Amino acid sequence: MSDPKPVRPELAAVLEAQHAALDEARPDAVAKQHARGGWTIRESIGAFLDPGSFVEYGRLARPARPDMTGPADGLVMGTGMVDGGPVCVMGYDYSVHAGTQSAINHAKASRIFELARARRWPVVCWAEGGGARPHDSVAMQRTSGFVPHTFISFAQMSGLVPRIVVAPGRAFAGQANLSGLSDILIATKRTAMGMAGPPLVEAALGVKYAPEEIGPVEVHVAAGAVDILVEDDAAAAAMARQCLGYFRGPAAPGPEPDVERLRAVIPENPRRAYDVRKVIEGLADVGSVVELRPKFGRAMVTAFARIEGRPVGILANQPMFLAGAIDSPASDKAARFISLCDAFDIPMLILCDTPGLMVGPEIETTALVRHSARILMALANATVPILTVVLRKAYGLGYYILGSPPLRPTVLLAWPTAEFGGMGIEGAVNIIYRKELEAEPDSDRRAAMHREFTEQLKIAHTALAQAGRYALDDVIDPADTRLILAQVLRTCPPPPPRTERKHWVDAW
């Protein structure tokens, strides 16, 4: 067997430099990252992409300062495939100068964003790091007045391509900014975020905090900054793959749920609450539901799901919180979700069970008159198919802004348990029959009259009565809901090809 041909020196130098940036060439850095409880950025990208599909850009980049070293200048990026579809990926390497942002890796980020925008490819970004790298950025400011385009470029892609950010650990300053600009933000149990890290906070406030004291993940989940909280880096990569799929249209149908259980979800007692997530699980392909911001705006559930493989955005009142009444946080959560679905042509399923908007002097201090208007503004201007199913209560302005006839839903259905009205039935009785009730001096007789009037009004506002007035398209067996929705979704034409975005998506 002949000896292999010698490698030319210039090629050997390139191969050595390429290898030096990989995890296998940096065992100490890898071990340190694992000791922190996280994966390396190359491990995360490898788990996210289809095997063997990654094409790296800028692996040989290095810090601008000649006295500094750092593989790929702390930013791993490139293109690849997920379930056979193209995607741009980038991620800050926490093992290189704590994942800080530099002049060189800002240029790299701008390059991958430019490519994503030109090709209309989704962007998935891992944002773990401590913001600007002072050693580098200060020097560049002095010599060239360098100002990064990274954040503006990322913002300008809003509504044009899906932008998913994973914040697997500490994300401060620039990394927190990218996280806040995302369409979907995925965090792990070890995430901590803040618009400034410990050094800047200490300089500004005179108090020294650990990173996890500034912005622990629990705070961001409750405040609505984080869309999805997962256990660890492996779960984050898998979740990013699943979320990306909702923006890519139909897929193979998943397992069917037990639709017969839907007949028993709504309690016989109309005052009893139930978890609307059970309805969602009974409609969607098994394993296809991903809820966004579950601990924020809890009067509303927002979730992506699939019905016979077709992606839908689900907006549902949650009777377990405020009896499903709509408050300001729920309004913001709903409006933003509608805007996101509409921007990317994802049909919307609305599951209505609300007594209306929250009322009283306390709620008015939250500017509900403005926040609730965001839902109507978003739905009234959306062009995606809207499928409405009234589960139980459909009262007042709450129903009006959630897929009622004036919003021209593609289909408007009701379950037999549905009841309609300008307000709650009992409250309406108190107003409509006030004179009759006040004229009756006997309290027992007055109570009996109230029950009789209430029953009469209920009968006039049942689902069957509404259908008789053709105020909805049909009253259906709950067990048939999934099939009917699937049939309607099949008839909806595919969205037109777009060369420009429909609209940008509010970061909030």
The largest sheet is: 8 strands, mixed
Helices and strands: which structural class?
alpha/beta
Helical percentage: 25-40%
* Number of helical regions: 21
Ranges with pLDDT <50 over ≥5 residues? none
Terminal CA distance reads 66 Å
Give the overall silhouette: elongated
- Rg calculated over all Cα atoms: 27 Å
- Write down the overall mean pLDDT: 93
**Which range does the strand content fall in?**
15-25%
The total count of strands amounts to: 17
Task: Summarize the entry for a quick read.
The protein is of the alpha/beta class. It has helices spanning 9-20, 27-35, 41-48, 103-119, 134-144, 150-156, 174-181, 198-205, 211-214, 217-223, 233-246, 277-283, 328-343, 361-364, 368-380, 396-400, 425-432, 434-439, 443-460, 463-468, 481-491, and strands at 55-57, 75-82, 85-92, 123-126, 163-167, 170-172, 184-188, 192-194, 228-230, 290-292, 300-307, 310-317, 348-354, 386-395, 411-414, 419-421, 474-475. 39% of the residues lie in helices and 17% in strands.
